Every structure is written in structure tokens, then in C-alpha cells.
UniProtKB/TrEMBL annotation:
Residues at which Mg(2+) binds: R390, R420
Enzyme Commission identifier(s): 2.7.4.1
Polyphosphate kinase middle domain residues: 131-312
Gene3D superfamilies: Endonuclease Chain A, Polyphosphate kinase middle domain, Polyphosphate kinase N-terminal domain
Boundaries of every Polyphosphate kinase C-terminal domain copy: 346-510, 518-690
Function, as annotated: Catalyzes the reversible transfer of the terminal phosphate of ATP to form a long-chain polyphosphate (polyP).
Broad class of enzyme this protein falls into: transferase
The reaction(s) this protein catalyses: [phosphate](n) + ATP = [phosphate](n+1) + ADP
Listed name of the protein: Polyphosphate kinase
Keywords: ATP-binding, Kinase, Magnesium, Metal-binding, Nucleotide-binding, Phosphoprotein, Transferase
Active site (record annotation): H450
Lineage, broadest ranks: Bacteria, Bacillati, Bacillota, Bacilli, Bacillales
């Protein structure tokens, strides 16, 4: 071993932002993968587009703010200054957008083969144009508002991510002279991005036009007496990162509501322009007015904002099932036997018998909803305490918490108001819960509460029983259908005490409590992991069997990266399954030769956090709400919890083994930070981990 190697050299790390772009490139590759059904490929394009929006609104916006105030200090891993990061981001993103353009055009061609097409206005027959003109006059025209731009009416403040038309006009005066004028027309948010043209005896063909092109074609109707010279379709992305100044709970609620209003109007960080409709004079005006650089302009061959493909997917999926993924139904949890000898058990009886593990989406999220519903309706339940980070639009969890409060139970709900891009949603839920009689709290000052935990307190024949649910994912039954996550039900007394202390710590005045099993961030999770890695190194030096497997969304914490480098140098074999950003570089001689990093991007979003340490045969498996990111270690309230039941440990080990064998959707990172599909040997059996886990869930039910 070379002792003079410095583990914290910049060349040993990936920059966080560039690593994230590499992840989004993998999403884009799924849109290009013809083994995915056609409509699913369109959905991956929508995901890519949505991801990029958030990246610009938060990460790019932050870098631009740093550059604006003259901040030049390099980030602490790859050693890039804000300006250097922006230069690399811009170069990579322009390439990705070019691939997005090409991919979309290819998918449109494939759609035509399925009798589905988007047509330009020039391709339409007179009959179709007549229909669309009537549609424009009756449905669209009344909603449009032309905004003149002149000396008396300045360039309007245009909302974030909305599609707009800049219309260049000519007007003749009485002398016959012409004067150029400009106006902005915003595409109405409440209307669909695409309009279907009724079938005119052409079999099963379906034809659509983009609403912005339809408006462009008939926009002259908004300006009678004037001549339209050009129309430029554009979209502005703005800085949308909230700056919250926390005081009391009421102040926080009001602060977030005020900041949400301002999110639409932050500084411009990106301008997207349709290549079909472009005026160079208008572009120059935009650069000056929005205070952006030419490099901040992205030209798209097709429509702007491909997130509209989410809605397009839903509309076509019902008629084109062969173009979507095969439908799989989440199976009942294999650890949850609901009925025995003809007697149906309630969920509390089941959990008292043994710990229950749920693996979503392969196993149903319904037991979690049933847990809250049963607690709300059970006369023996005294209290429910729960953390909520992101919930669905029509959350049954919220409904049953409200019902529990109305039934006279004590209900404590920690609603995280600072869950990015869910703030408005959560503010509304917080108000509704409070109005129903729930005790609503907002966590600790300057910390996000990202933990996923529920405690139900029940009185059974003068004995107090505590039931706990802990998870790696949110209490959201919709995302549970497409995110892979793990959840644990337990009636273990020590877990119950830990849960009680955890909620008392959040709601009252007390120091961070000692726990029997829970490990809590800030700080403690990192320290626990460092100790576990050190133990793994010591065990390996004794027995040569050091082994660590970690699965997470992102890995950015430098202290933990360096600790794994130390373990690698000591000979510990390490496998990392990191879906998104990974600042660790594997395979570097003398640094990370014993570390392998893979990323699985497939049908489902890999969201579970699993940490395995061999510990010389005394295996330790931890599940967590936390990724190994500095923000999770220092700026969030997170929970990591152990799996104690040996059977459940074996299940999780089996799942990890399946992920590590994936040779279909798995990509491996090299020592330079680049990802390529895992190589398969000739005649090697195909292993798609997510599909194998589905098969396993079905097989387990067949065995019952």
C-alpha cells in the first residue's frame, strides 16, 4: 500500500453538479432505449425535462448567485470554482438538449407508425384548419391576454416555466409609414398543451397540434389592424430556491407563503426558444432584458417543456396498452398473514406477533394506510404521532389523521413545510390538520425533518402498547407505486420507547435523547457509519472478510467518502448502488480499487436506502430515510434503524444480491466518473433486478 497517496485530492472526486447531470443523462438514455415501450420512452423524456427544470431552478441558480457576488472559492471535493462549474454545466447541458431534440424527433416518427402524429399548422387540410379556428375562437381566444411592450408598458414580469409568445408587429400610420411594435402573449396554464383534431374517416389515426403553434397561427386575431411579422416561442426558467428566515412556527408558515409568491419571479437562469419560431432581434432584446448570457439560451427543435408528455402518456395509454409497460399489481406483504384458521386478524395483532417488512412497489402500500385507518377507528388507540414530508394530492393518510382527531384521539403531526416544491401543498395540509384538532408542529429551527416514522399508542387491558412504522420513503400511496422503498412495522418495546422520545424531542423542550436502536441526524448517523466502517476495517485485518454494501439515491458526503477510501485501501470489498449523484470515484489505484459503483435506472425510481456491514459474521443491516449526503448528515432530522429479525435480514440480503447481479438496467462508474452499461458475457442470463423482484413477490404469494 502506498502511504503517500492523499485521499482528499480533487482527482479522487466527482463534482456534485456534473455527477447529477450524468444521472440525468442516464434517464435520457432510457428514452433512447428501444427495449422500453414507446410511450414509456416518451415518459422518460418528460422525466428528463422535469429533472432539468429543477436543476436549473435550484443548483444552477445557486451557482449564478455565487458568481454574481464574486464568490470564487472552489467546492471541497473536485475543486471547481462556481464559474468553472457553470462552464462545464453549460457545455454538457447543451449536448444533452441536442440529444433530447434528436430523441423526440425519432419518437415522433415511431409514433406515426402507430397512427399517432403531431402536425404543423402547414400540414393541415382546410377542413382541419377550419375546425381548429373554431376551437381557437371559442376556447382559447377568450383566455388570451396580449401584453404590449412600449415606452409606457415595460417588458412584463413573466412567470417561471410558462410558455410565451413574443409577437413582432407592424402598424401603418396615415402617411403609409410602418412602425414596429412588440407584444407578449402567454399560453394559458389551464389548457392542455396539445389539441386533438377530430378523426375524419382515416381509420384509427389520431392527430394533434401543439397549442402554442395553434395560438401562433391565429395570433393575428388579437391585433386587428396590424400585421404580424414574426412570432418567437420562449420559456424562462427562474431562480426558485426559497430563502427562509425562521422564527416562530406562525412566522414560518407566513414566511413560506410569502416566499412561494416570489418563487415565480426570481432571476432568470435559462431561456428556452423554439427553433421553429425565432427572431434574432427579439433574442437580443431578451438577453438585455433578462440579464442573461447567450450560453443561457437553449434552442429546441420540437416543443418547449416536454413535461407535457406526462399528460399525453395518460391520454394515449388507455388506447395503446401495447406501448406501455406490462401492468403489475403490488402483492400483499409476505410477512403479513391477515387470516389464520378462518379468523381475520387486525393489523395490531399481526405486528405484535412479529416484525413485518414491506418492499414497495412490489408489495402493497395498503398496510400502511390500513395502519393509520385502524388507529383512527380503534377505540383502544389513544394517540397517533407521525412525520409527513411529501403526501399525495388526495392523501388517505391525511384523511384518517383528521378522522382520528375527530374521534377524540391525540394526534401529533410534524408537517415539513420546507419540503422543496411541496411547500404550498404542505402549508395547506398543515392548516387542514390543525383545523381538525390535530397538534401540528413544523420541526426544529434551521433543520428539515426528513424522517419517516409513525407511532401508535394503544391501551389493551390496562397495558400500554406501542406500534411503530419506519420507512425509507414518504407516506405517499401514489409514489409508492413507482418508487422502490422499504418499511418496517414493529411492536418491539425498545423501538416504541425510541419513537416516543423522538417525537417528544421534536415537539417539546429536551436534549437529543439516547436511543436503544434509532440513530438520528444531524451528526449521529455519520458518526455511527464511521464507527461501523472502522470496525469493518478491523475485522478485515483479522479475518479477511470485510464487506460493505450500501444502496442510496446520492452520495456526496466527503468525510464518509474518505472513510470508504480508507476501507478500500485496507482491502474491504465495497459495493455501492447509487442511483443519482455520486461524488466517490471507484477503481482509482491505491485509493478505491476495492470499490464498485453501479447505478440502476429503470421502470421504477430506486429510492430505498440500505446499509449492510458484514461485521465478521455478526451482520448489521440498517435502513434509513437518509442518503449519504452532507445535507442529510448535518441539516436534516433523519432516522436510521436496524433490522433485528434474522428472516427479514435474509430478505434484504437477497434483494441486494439481485440488484448487484443486474446486467440489464445497471450502469457501472469508472475511475474517471463515466458510466457505461454493465458488460454481459456471451450467453449470460439477463438479470433485470426490478423485474426479478416483481417475480419474487408473485412467487412468494403463490407459495402462501
Amino acid at each position: 500500500m502506498e502511504n503517500n497517496i492523499k485521499l482528499n485530492e480533487p482527482s479522487n472526486f466527482n463534482n456534485r453538479e456534473l455527477s447529477w447531470l450524468s444521472f440525468n443523462k442516464r434517464v435520457l438514455e432510457e428514452a433512447r432505449d428501444d427495449s422500453n415501450p414507446l410511450l414509456e420512452r416518451l415518459k422518460f423524456l418528460a422525466i428528463f425535462s422535469s429533472n432539468l427544470d429543477e436543476f436549473f431552478m435550484v443548483r444552477v441558480a445557486g451557482l449564478k448567485d455565487q458568481i454574481k457576488v464574486g464568490f470564487t472559492q472552489p467546492e471541497n471535493k473536485a475543486g471547481l470554482t462556481p464559474k468553472e462549474q457553470m462552464e462545464k454545466i453549460t457545455k454538457i447541458t447543451h449536448k444533452l438538449v441536442a440529444i433530447q431534440n434528436k430523441t423526440y424527433q425519432e419518437l415522433l416518427t415511431a409514433l406515426k407508425n402507430e397512427d399517432v402524429s403531431f402536425l404543423s399548422m402547414q400540414e393541415l387540410s382546410p377542413e382541419c384548419l377550419s375546425y381548429l379556428e373554431q376551437h381557437f375562437d371559442k376556447i382559447i381566444f377568450p383566455v388570451l391576454t396580449p401584453l404590449a411592450v412600449d415606452a409606457y408598458r415595460p417588458f412584463p414580469l413573466l412567470a417561471n416555466k410558462r410558455i410565451n409568445l413574443d409577437v413582432t408587429l407592424y402598424e401603418k400610420d396615415d402617411s403609409g409609414n410602418t412602425e414596429k411594435k412588440f407584444a407578449i402573449v402567454q399560453v394559458p396554464k389551464g389548457l392542455d398543451r396539445f389539441v386533438e383534431i377530430p378523426n375524419q374517416d382515416e381509420g384509427h389515426k389520431r392527430k394533434f397540434v401543439y397549442i402554442e403553434e395553434l395560438i401562433s397561427h391565429f395570433v393575428y386575431k388579437l391585433f386587428p389592424g396590424m400585421q404580424v411579422q414574426s412570432v418567437t416561442i420562449f420559456r424562462i426558467t427562474r431562480n426558485a430556491d426559497l430563502e427562509i428566515h425562521e422564527e416562530g412556527a406562525r412566522d414560518l408558515l407566513k414566511e413560506i407563503e410569502e416566499e412561494l409568491k416570489m418563487r415565480k419571479w426570481g432571476a432568470a437562469v435559462r431561456l428556452e426558444v423554439s427553433k421553429k419560431f425565432i427572431d434574432k432581434e427579439v433574442l437580443a432584446f431578451f438577453i438585455d432584458e433578462l440579464e442573461i448570457h447567450e450560453k443561457d439560451i437553449y434552442f429546441l427543435e420540437g416543443p418547449l417543456d416536454l413535461t407535457f408528455l406526462f399528460g399525453f402518456y395518460k391520454q394515449l395509454a388507455a388506447f395503446k396498452e401495447h406501448l406501455t409497460f406490462e401492468t403489475f399489481l403490488p402483492q400483499p406483504a409476505q410477512d403479513m398473514i391477515i387470516e389464520q384458521e378462518g379468523v381475520k386478524k387486525n393489523i395490531f395483532e399481526i405486528i405484535k406477533e412479529k416484525d413485518v417488512l414491506l418492499h414497495h412497489p412490489f408489495e402493497s402500500f395498503e398496510p400502511v394506510i390500513d395502519f393509520i385507518r385502524s388507529a383512527a377507528e380503534d377505540d383502544q388507540v389513544l394517540a397517533i404521532k407521525q412525520t409527513l414530508y411529501r403526501v399525495s394530492e388526495e392523501s388517505p393518510i391525511i384523511k384518517y389523521l383528521i378522522k382520528a382527531a375527530e374521534n377524540g384521539k391525540q394526534v401529533l403531526v410534524l408537517v415539513e413545510l420546507k419540503a422543496r416544491f411541496d411547500e404550498e401543498h404542505n402549508v395547506q395540509w398543515a392548516k387542514e390538520l390543525e383545523e381538525a384538532g390535530c397538534h401540528v408542529i413544523y420541526g426544529k429551527t434551521l433543520l428539515k425533518t426528513h424522517s419517516k416514522i409513525t407511532l401508535v399508542v394503544r391501551k389493551n387491558h390496562d397495558v400500554i402498547e406501542r406500534f411503530v412504522h419506519l420507512g425509507t420513503g414518504n407516506y405517499n400511496e401514489e409514489t409508492a407505486k413507482v418508487y422502490t422503498d422499504l418499511g418496517l412495522f414493529t411492536a418491539n418495546e425498545e423501538f416504541g420507547i425510541d419513537a416516543t422520545n423522538f417525537f417528544n424531542y421534536l415537539s417539546g423542550f429536551m436534549e437529543k435523547p439516547p436511543f436503544h436502536h434509532l440513530i438520528m441526524a444531524p451528526n449521529d448517523i455519520r458518526e455511527e457509519f464511521i464507527q461501523l466502517v472502522d470496525k469493518e476495517i478491523a475485522f478485515h485485518q483479522q479475518s479477511g472478510n470485510g464487506r460493505i454494501i450500501a444502496k442510496m439515491n446520492s452520495f456526496t458526503d466527503k468525510k464518509l467518502i474518505i472513510k470508504l477510501y480508507e476501507a478500500s485501501r485496507a482491502g474491504v470489498k465495497i459495493d455501492l448502488i447509487v442511483r443519482g449523484t455520486c461524488c466517490l470515484r471507484p477503481g482509482i489505484k491505491g485509493v478505491s480499487e476495492n470499490i464498485r459503483v453501479i447505478s440502476i435506472v429503470g421502470r421504477f425510481l430506486e429510492h430505498s436506502r440500505i446499509y449492510y456491514f458484514h461485521q465478521n459474521g455478526q451482520e448489521k443491516i440498517l435502513l434509513s430515510s437518509a442518503d449519504l449526503m452532507t445535507r442529510n448528515m448535518e441539516k436534516r432530522v433523519e432516522i436510521t434503524f436496524p433490522i433485528l429479525n434474522l428472516n427479514l435480514k435474509e430478505r434484504i440480503k437477497q434483494n441486494l444480491a439481485i440488484y448487484l447481479m443486474d446486467n440489464v438496467k445497471s450502469r457501472e462508474q469508472d475511475r474517471l466518473g463515466n458510466y457505461t452499461y454493465v458488460k454481459r458475457n456471451t450467453n449470460e442470463e439477463l438479470v433485470n433486478s426490478q423485474m426479478n423482484l416483481w417475480a419474487l413477490a408473485y412467487d412468494n404469494m403463490d407459495d402462501e
